[in-house]
Amino acid sequence: MKIDAKNWDIIKCLQQNARLSNAEIGRKVGLSSPAVAERIKKLEDYGVLKGYIAEVSYTKTGYQLKAMIMLRAFMGRLQPFLIKVPEFKEVINCYRITGNENIIMEVVLRDQIHLQEFIDRLITYGEVKTHIILSNLIENKPITNYTQLDRSKFNSL
Q1: CB-side exposure of 40: number of CA atoms within 13 Å?
Q2: What angle do CA 136, 140, 145 make, to 5 degrees?
Q3: d(CA 143, CA 45)
Q4: What is the mean pLDDT of residues 20-39?
Q5: In the predicted model, what is the mean pLDDT of residues 22-47?
Q6: Cα–Cα distances in Å, from 151 out to 8, 142, 143, 157?
Q7: N-term to C-term CA, the chain
Q8: What are the φ and ψ backbone dihedral angles of 131, each rounded to 5 degrees?
Q9: What's the predicted TM-score (pTM) here?
Q10: How far apart (Å, rounded) are the C-alpha atoms in residues 24 and 150?
Q11: What are the Cα distances from residue 139, in Å, to 56, 69, 135, 143?
């Protein structure tokens, strides 16, 4: 599937507000409502649009801490961890990575005691490094069509 400029415009609209109607998107991108609906369906079918989610404030739901936790798995403990990690309710994102650590997780926790208890569960799988998040500088930044960016901006760097 080719993601042309109109598809990128639709993607941009949906990333800004996934609740926009097809008619509203059409007005913004210069297409009819049926044309927008057809393009969105194709983007969904192709897997470009994976879903629509509600963004929830972790602090307003009772979690006081957000942290990034890296795990360097002990020999023979990575596979058991990969099986277990989906059960950890604290984990909101988890990535298998390159480098000294094998895993990086984004977690939400009630407080420091909850953090300590969570780390105690993790240390059976490997060495743990914890970084408490103080603030979000960039969050859920929309994906942009970088092929259409003005390359002259990069030449001056």
Answers
A1: 24
A2: 130
A3: 19
A4: 97
A5: 97
A6: 18, 19, 17, 11
A7: 33
A8: -130, 110
A9: 0.81
A10: 28
A11: 12, 18, 10, 12
